[in-house]
Amino acid sequence: MWRELIALLRQIRNAYAKSIDIGKKKHHALVGLDFQTLDALNKQEETLTGEIRQLEEKRLQLMAKLSKEQAGIEQDIKLSKLLAKLPTSPVRETLYALYAELSENVKAARQLSDDNRVLIRAAMTAVSYHLNRFGGARADSTYGRSGAEGGTQQQNLDFRA
């Protein structure tokens, strides 16, 4: 059972490593406003996200089996707490190394996702600006009596297309 958990955690770790690679490629595509590459990367990321979801479901099923067979292990136990309960052994050392790598991969993937989210907003602002510029649209900031910022807008293109 422990070997299955180790193999599964390795698969999850590798999936997150692929996610990091895709995130870095997305970062470069967003900086370069390369929307074709970005579209292809989004499809890869969607497939990978499905794989990670399936691996996580397998991990939960495996943890349910472990909780039935091993006293003191709950089904929803965190890996860090599971490691603390295991006696020192090669299995524990391997699980600890995988836990450290997986934690770093998840942290890096989240950071890339957050960074890319900012770039996506900037890219959408740039696209909107250029569309408005080509269409002769204007958007001016104004301030009302209360001091709150408002705006006036004039559009020459119908963006519902």
What does this structure look like?
The chain is mainly α. 73% of the residues lie in helices and 7% in strands. The chain is built from four helices and two strands; from the N terminus they run ααααββ. It has helices at residues 2-31, 35-69, 79-85, 90-135; strands at residues 138-143, 149-154. A two-stranded antiparallel ribbon has the order 1-2. Helix 1 (2-31) packs antiparallel against helix 2 (35-69). The longest helix is centred in the C-terminal third of the chain and has 46 residues, at 90-135. The protein is elongated. It starts with a helix and ends in a 7-residue tail after the last strand.
Keyword list:
161 residues; mainly alpha; two-stranded antiparallel ribbon; 4 helices; 7% strand; elongated
What low-confidence regions span 5 or more consecutive residues with pLDDT below 50?
Answer: none
Question: Roughly how many Å apart are the termini?
Answer: 56 Å
Question: Which structural category fits the helices and strands?
Answer: mainly alpha
What oligomeric state do these chains adopt? single chain
Q: Which strands sit side by side, in order, in the main sheet?
A: 1-2
Roughly what is the average pLDDT, rounded to an integer? 81
Helical residues, percent: over 70%
Looking at the structure, what is the overall shape?
elongated
How much of the sequence is in beta strands?
A: 5-15%
Q: Order of helices and strands, N to C?
A: HHHHEE
Q: Got a strand count? A: 2
Alpha-carbon Rg, integer: 24 Å
Number of helical regions: 4
Biggest sheet details: 2 strands, antiparallel
